[in-house]
Design brief:
Blueprint (H helix, E strand, L loop, with lengths): L6 H20 L16 E5 L6 E4 L3 E5 L9 H16 L2 H22 L5 H41 L6 H11 L15 H25 L4
Parallel strand pairs: 1-3
Antiparallel strand pairs: 2-3
Helix pairs in contact: 1-2, 2-4, 3-4, 4-6, 5-6
The protein binds zinc ion.
Length: 221
């Protein structure tokens, strides 16, 4: 992926990401993951790409598209994104998606086997039907729950890192109005923006409590 030449943007994303990663490593049991790579080990890059996307990968890599900056006027906005992406890594959603992919492939072999005495046309139809079912029935619902889990953990991380979690609602509202704004892992699995924002609003009091406690201990601004 081509890197953008944006030292100021990179410094900004890095500073925020390091705080969020530190929070995710130190978060209470059940929320955080002390086995995440330490902040200094993460490789963070601004990707030269106009689409507003971001990703994090296990092993400590974060990519933040240059096109994301137009949707992130405040540091809190960036913390929402980094919190969400780091939460995917903590929950090992990438691995689960790989296992889902394997399960879908195994299912495809089963369909192929069970229809081997039928005509080529029938086999083709059965395969197409299986592909649609695998996508809609198995892979999408899991991914929706992943998104929701990442949103939930993400606001905890941002609160612990000293960023006001209330900004998550503002950010996703702005993001939902941007045509074509989809993080790669969303693709068609994106939960409806309305559902996502409603869920975040329900979770906000919990995250705000964490934020208030964090600010009482070590005010960040
Ligand atoms: Zn996500």
């Amino acid at each position: 992926m081509p890197r953008a030449n944006d030292p100021a943007g990179l410094a900004r994303v890095k500073a925020i990401a390091l705080r969020v990663i530190t929070a995710a490593r130190a978060a209470p049991k059940g929320y955080g993951d002390p086995s995440l790579p330490p902040p200094a080990a993460w490789e963070i890059a601004i990707i030269k790409d106009d689409s507003p996307n971001a990703f994090a990968m296990p092993g400590g890599k974060i990519g933040f598209n240059s096109g994301m900056f137009r949707l992130t006027p405040t540091d809190e906005d960036i913390a929402v994104i980094i919190g969400h992406e780091v939460a995917h890594v903590v929950c090992r959603h990438g691995n689960e998606r790989v296992s889902q992919g394997i399960a879908a492939a195994v299912g495809a072999v089963a369909v192929d086997q069970s229809t081997r005495d039928q005509s080529a046309e029938k086999r083709k139809q059965a395969m197409a039907a299986y592909g649609a079912a695998a996508t809609l029935g198995v892979i999408l619902p899991f991914s929706r729950s992943h998104e929701s889990e990442a949103d939930q953990l993400g606001i905890v991380y941002m609160a612990l890192a000293g960023y006001n979690p209330a900004q998550s609602v503002t950010f996703w509202q702005r993001f939902s109005k941007e045509p074509g704004a989809r993080m790669p892992e969303f693709l068609s699995t994106h939960p409806s923006d309305q559902t996502r924002i409603q869920k975040l609003q329900q979770l906000l009091p919990m995250a705000q409590k964490i934020y208030a406690e964090q600010q009482a201990k070590a005010p960040t601004r």
